[in-house]
Amino acid sequence: MEAKECKVQDILTENKKFIIPSYQRPYSWTVDNAEQLIDDIYKSSQSEENEYFIGSMICINKGQNQYEVVDGQQRLTTLSIIVSELKKIIPIQGIKDDLQKRVLPIDVYSDETDEPRLIVRKKEYDLYKYYILQDSKDYKPEKPSDTELVFISNAETIRDYLLRLSVDELKLLAKYILQNVYIVFVQTDDFASSFRHL
User: Fold this and answer.
1) Cβ proximity of 86 and 173 under 8 Å
2) Which of 11, 39, 58, 130 has the fewest CB atoms within 10 Å around its CB?
3) Can you give the pTM of this predicted structure?
4) Among the residues of 46-145, which ranges form H helices?
5) Cα-flanking dihedrals φ and ψ of residue 109, to 5°?
6) Residues near 190 by beta carbon (within 8 Å), at least 6 away in sequence
7) Where do the GmrSD restriction endonucleases N-terminal domain residues begin and end (predicted)?
8) Tell me: the pLDDT tens digits for 100-150?
9) Comparing 33-37, 63-67, 131-135, 178-182, which segment has the lowest mean pLDDT?
10) Rounded Cα distance, 65 and 166, in Å
11) 2 phi/psi in degrees, rounded to 5
12) Are the C-beta atoms of residues 58 and 192 closer than 8 Å to each other?
């Protein structure tokens, strides 16, 4: 078992991929939870606080830089939505590109997308990738499931919050999330070991 404090920029990076296993409960954070998280991070970015801890994440190391998320998926999923919504709104291309590669890498020569850094459950995968992360106009969920509606509602809540901020505030927030928001990242080699740390 290995535990260390990691910046978000060291979690959402090209050499890590996180997988939400099928046995995990669905994404269920309410809009109040999502708004509280973005509000707390924003207020921290505007204060003298140099660090904001988002909690812990327990993962099973599956090898080849792939990690199965045992605990912490609600926070990690919401964080990925925040980064994605920031990417859509911020008008500075360099920051857009950096945020983009942290949630959904794109081949700049073909415009084809890779797998997201966070692989959510299969039932919500298409909506998460194409509608939330990619903002594809071609993807329209006809009858969203309850869990898909949670994704949509939280993304809209976060977007509405971010739209109230100035460009300078968005720029500072993006930098703060990547460099000053920390997660306690716990790695284990098997499920039994990870379960003991819950």
Assistant:
1) yes
2) 39
3) 0.92
4) 73-89, 93-103, 122-126
5) -90, -25
6) 60
7) 8-193
8) 999 998 776 666 668 899 999 999 999 999 999 987 767 877 889 999 999
9) 131-135
10) 37
11) -135, 130
12) no
